[in-house]
Amino acid sequence: MEYNTNQKKLALPEYGRSVQKMVDHAMTIEDREERQKCANTIVRIMGSMFPNTRNLPDYERKLWDHLAIMSDFMLDIDYPFEVIKKEDFRTPPQRIPYQTGEIKNRHYGRIVEEMIAHACTLEDGEEKERLIELITIQMKKNYIAWNKDGVEDKRIFEDLRIYTKGAIDIQDKEIKLNNGGNNQRNNAKRNNGTNNKKGFKRKF
């Protein structure tokens, strides 16, 4: 018995060794017309293996791309689509440019810093106040993720003041954050008149 570990590595293992053997056989067919018919049959078989992907964009073209890959781009047939080129297939992906630069407080993260910077550009008003409250909620959540012992609200407000060099100072405002980072002042507003149905019981 010949084990798979002793055989040639599959270019696309998801199609299995049987389909790979079909592709290998197609490459040995000398008659071009018969080789083309064989390739068409192989592609139909490949498509039947993953019926749930038929609605994906460029579904058929991808099947022919896969056929070319499995033949190491050596199968001489008339492809109905312009298939991927060997040099493009082997090209490594471009590196993703990561953001650089220091973060003042790593436990808050870069996104919070960007939110704070954006808040400083807004004019005074409801939109700015709401964004500042959301920032403090996120700051407390991030802080607690790093320090399970918790943090006092005044520390969050002081850090926000330091971040903005005094441009945003909410230490004297009535904002109360609980340990989950929810703004209790806003929650109280939302709950007014909605939780007064005492004695309500579900009937099952």
Structure description:
This protein is mainly alpha-helical and 204 residues long. It has 2 domains: 11-89, no CATH class; 110-187, no CATH class. The protein has 8 helices and no strands. The protein has helices at residues 16-26, 32-49, 59-70, 86-89, 110-121, 126-146, 153-163, 184-191. The radius of gyration is 31 Å and the shape is rod-shaped. 16% of the residues are buried. Mean pLDDT is 80; it is low at 185-204.
SSE topology sketch:
Layout: H1 16-26, H2 32-49, H3 59-70, H4 86-89, H5 110-121, H6 126-146, H7 153-163, H8 184-191
Helix pairs in contact: 1-2, 2-3, 5-6
Largest sheet descriptor = none
Helix percent reads 40-55%
How far is it from the N-terminal to the C-terminal residue, by CA? 62 Å
| Count of alpha and pi helical runs | 8
Strand content: under 5%
Radius of gyration: 31 Å
Number of strands: 0
Number of domains: 2
Write a concise keyword list for the protein shown above:
204 residues; mainly alpha; 0% strand; rod-shaped
